[in-house]
């Protein structure tokens, strides 16, 4: 019976985390596509910027409607919509006949990312047993990093295959999307995980907490029993019913004395994840590797190395989040990120960029981010809000992340040009130090607690 419950939970988690894999793939595939699209459509600077950023606009739109609709229609229905959006985007980008069509398809994919970035960790948190909830939600971030790595690997593989078979005929459509315009097949790879995600969702249940909230208590109890066993499931239902009794389901609930603190946490952690400097490090990755004396002829290969490192270090979070707890893991990671970013900036400040120390500093930052600041924003934000408003509240949290991502994307080149690389890294180090202080002051430990017990913690008088 125990093995059957474990298998059921593993399958549910696998399907939900495919949303994370598609998130990572959709965001990273652009790196290989951009040079070819730029050449084919002769993009102006403004068109190039819009082509890259239109997916972020789609993300914000997706997050905006996902929260409200998931609280009305359920988590599963919205995840199905996300899977359809991913599939339409993969097909649309692969077959786009014009730049306008391509941008629309990219924006549709961004909407899928927005929905998945909100609903996948939320769904996992509502279905996972308390003892391993942190680990299962962290699998979502692991899937994001895997999606990034898959995009880098498939971009490199498709490009190599195309170059190897130039002058040959693969027949019909394959000639068009693999040999003549290779960027189309880079996008088309996304059809495979999109179909897997869509098909898998028809075999997983809806969130038991959402079902109970909607008065479908028997269905919710059945799902909880399959996951936790009958005794634990019955107690969970009692606790869920008790919390629902004093919840209003209104946005005003977030401004109650205890929930105000949860709201601040839900806004600040995604904000800090973007202002940590992760995008600047990814941007400088190839240059840093070369400056450190590692000869890399292919820019895609350097991305694969950084993507693999990011995936590897995220495994630390999966391993330790339910043992060490969210708070200690975040504090260690934030402090480590602060120190490594400061040392990275120091290398640039002293013009010491051609040694192994710079590489080690960057890898240390990547490690600290990957096991703390990166994944724990999803873990913590997905478990701190009340049942009736959790979808909408988490949507606000995730939308903060996407807005911050847009701001950092615009701000980083300005900082690099105006104050230099060293000070830019020190600004990011300061943000990581601030995130350490915020978590130290505001975030309580929640490992091993049910979502209802966590809600009680925030609402209890202090």
Automatic annotation (TrEMBL):
Q: Which InterPro entries match?
A: MFS_dom, MFS_sugar_transport-like, MFS_trans_sf, Myo-inositol_Transporter, Sugar/inositol_transpt, Sugar_transporter_CS, XylE-like
The protein's predominant localisation is membrane
How this chain sits in the membrane, per its record, is: Multi-pass membrane protein
Question: What subcellular compartments does it reside in?
Answer: Cell membrane
Keywords assigned by UniProt?
A: Cell membrane, Membrane, Transmembrane, Transmembrane helix, Transport
The domain of life for this entry's organism is: Bacteria
Query: Major facilitator superfamily (MFS) profile domain location, by residue?
Result: 12-447
Q: Where are the transmembrane segments?
A: 7-37, 49-66, 78-97, 103-124, 136-162, 182-204, 262-284, 304-321, 328-350, 356-381, 393-416, 422-440
Q: Does the keyword Transmembrane apply?
A: yes
Decide whether keyword Cell membrane is in the record: yes
The family this protein is said to belong to? Belongs to the major facilitator superfamily. Sugar transporter (TC 2.A.1.1) family.
Which PANTHER family does the record match to this protein? PROTON MYO-INOSITOL COTRANSPORTER
User: What is the name of the protein in this document?
Assistant: Sugar porter family MFS transporter
Question: Per the UniProt entry, what species is this protein from, by scientific name?
Answer: Rhodocytophaga aerolata
């Amino acid at each position: 019976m125990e093995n059957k419950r474990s298998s059921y939970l593993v399958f549910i988690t696998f399907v939900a985390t495919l949303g994370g894999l598609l998130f990572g793939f959709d965001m990273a595939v652009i790196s290989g596509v951009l040079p070819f699209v730029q050449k084919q459509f002769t993009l102006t600077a403004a068109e190039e910027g819009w082509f890259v950023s239109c997916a972020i606009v789609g993300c914000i739109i997706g997050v905006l409607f996902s929260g409200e609709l998931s609280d009305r229609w359920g988590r599963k229905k919205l995840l199905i919509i996300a899977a359809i959006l991913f599939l339409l985007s993969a097909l649309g980008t692969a077959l786009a006949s014009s730049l306008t069509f391509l941008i629309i398809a990219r924006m549709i994919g961004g909407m899928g990312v927005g929905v998945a970035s909100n609903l996948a960790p939320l769904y996992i948190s509502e279905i996972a047993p308390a003892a391993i909830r942190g680990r299962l939600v962290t699998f979502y971030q692991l899937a994001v990093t895997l999606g990034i790595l898959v995009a880098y690997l498939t971009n490199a593989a498709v490009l190599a295959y195309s170059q190897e078979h130039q002058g040959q005929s693969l027949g019909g459509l394959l000639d068009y999307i693999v040999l003549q315009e290779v960027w189309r097949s880079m996008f088309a790879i996304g059809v495979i995980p999109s179909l897997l995600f869509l098909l898998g969702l028809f075999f997983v249940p809806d969130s038991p907490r959402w079902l109970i909230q909607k008065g479908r208590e028997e269905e919710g109890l059945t799902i909880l029993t399959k996951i936790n066993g009958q005794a634990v499931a019955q107690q969970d239902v009692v606790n869920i019913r008790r919390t629902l009794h004093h919840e209003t389901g209104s946005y005003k609930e977030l401004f109650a004395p205890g929930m105000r603190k949860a709201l601040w946490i839900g806004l600040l952690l995604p904000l800090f994840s973007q202002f940590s400097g992760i995008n600047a490090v990814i941007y400088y990755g190839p240059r840093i590797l070369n400056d450190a004396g590692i000869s890399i002829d292919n820019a895609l290969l350097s991305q694969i190395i950084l993507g693999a490192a990011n995936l590897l270090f995220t495994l630390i979070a999966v391993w330790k989040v339910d043992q060490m707890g969210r708070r200690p893991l975040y504090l260690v990671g934030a402090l480590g990120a602060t120190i490594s970013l400061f040392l990275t900036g120091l290398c640039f400040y002293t013009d010491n960029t051609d040694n192994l120390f710079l590489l080690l500093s960057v890898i240390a930052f990547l490690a600290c981010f990957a096991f703390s600041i990166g994944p724990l924003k999803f873990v913590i934000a997905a478990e701190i809000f009340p049942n009736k408003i959790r979808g909408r509240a988490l949507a606000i949290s995730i939308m903060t992340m996407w807005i911050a991502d847009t701001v950092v994307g615009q701000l980083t080149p300005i900082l690099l040009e105006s104050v230099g690389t060293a000070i830019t890294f020190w600004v990011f180090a300061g943000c990581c130090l601030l995130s350490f202080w915020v978590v130290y002051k505001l975030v309580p430990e929640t490992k091993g607690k049910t979502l209802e017990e966590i809600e009680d913690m925030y609402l209890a008088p202090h």
